[in-house]
Amino acid sequence: MVDYIKLFDKIIEFINWDTLKHTAFKLNTDNKVSKFFTKDHLKSMIYHHISQKDSLRDLSFGISMSSKLKETVASVSLSTLSYHNNKRNYEVFLPVLYELINKVLSTGSVNESLKRFGSIKLIDSTTISMSLNLYQWALFRSTKAGVKIHTRFDLNKGIPDAFVVTNAVEHDKTAMDSLIDSRHCIYVFDKGYLDYEKFDQYTKDEKYFVTRLKHNAVVTEVEDLKISYSYERLLDVGTKIICDKIVKLGSKYTYQTKQEYRLIKIVDKTGKELTFITNIDDLLSEEIAFLYKKRWEIELFFKWIKQNLKFKTFVGRSLNSVMIQIITGIMTFAVFKLIEPFIQTKTTLIEIKRAIKANLFEIYEADKFNWSYIFNSS
């Protein structure tokens, strides 16, 4: 007898349901629940991100009207879905999310151009605007509301491995201590995270970083270094390295760094001058500039999730429902990253997502299933 499986069921096989069951019991999220359990909630939110339904009503209607989906996800009314989005503790989904992230981090290969640097973490934030009338708890300007997702992105494996959600009014620096917590890896972040006292502490703790210096920064030059280049070109044609120096940062009247730092200045192909600061002394001038250039990868990640998952609008109005949507969105991205190595043809993550969306309820022979099949039938 031949067994068949829906593509959606194959997707959610990546989820560790035992972990979710254990956490649901620990946090009591299924107490006095007669239907729409925590597992159904997670399945419905993954479906929501893949299908990109516009509202809670559309999500509820889509689940209720699809006979194929109801075989996997329990049918749910609008009121029930709304209630659990607001009341079910969002933390119940975090252990599952971090298990998926760790799976991605432990699989796949690292780009050859990055291997020499070891672990590289990009840090940045993205703001999601909201209606002030609906999300007054997220007020950050007189006429706007929003949340900010502060993210640490593992460049080697292409996935966020930590994030902090705050009101959009919070400065980026408020999340630094939560995201810069490990020794012996390189953190790359922009000038919004400048904090000279923290830089000294990072250096003392052997936390390495590359960042950009503000144009009006006070700098005391200590020593000129010889500009050094890689044997292979790492920067765009037309980009020139102007100097590599040892400096101290800040003023004696406010705070001057106790540690000394490298300052590398470049002029890019458009004529724009950029100044980088780092506490790494064993990399080439060009390599430092190259690492900062890779910061663009986290911007591409933010753009990807906003365009291909449900991050621009939220189906609930409470902080809890917003957190559930953010967590399950990153979870869905992690599942796509786990699927990526199984595709036998060269393809992009957005093509994988489109093929999955187009074939979400297609039936395949379970024993002969191959992820490349989704491109043959889409």
UniProtKB/TrEMBL annotation:
Residues 117-331 form the Transposase IS4-like domain. The keyword DNA-binding applies. The keyword DNA-binding applies. Pfam families: DDE_Tnp_1 (PF01609), DUF4372 (PF14294). Residues 7-71 form the DUF4372 domain. Keywords: DNA recombination, DNA-binding, Transposition. One of its GO terms (biological process) is DNA transposition. GO terms for molecular function: DNA binding; transposase activity. It comes from the Bacteria. Belongs to the transposase 11 family. This is IS4 family transposase. It comes from Clostridium butyricum.
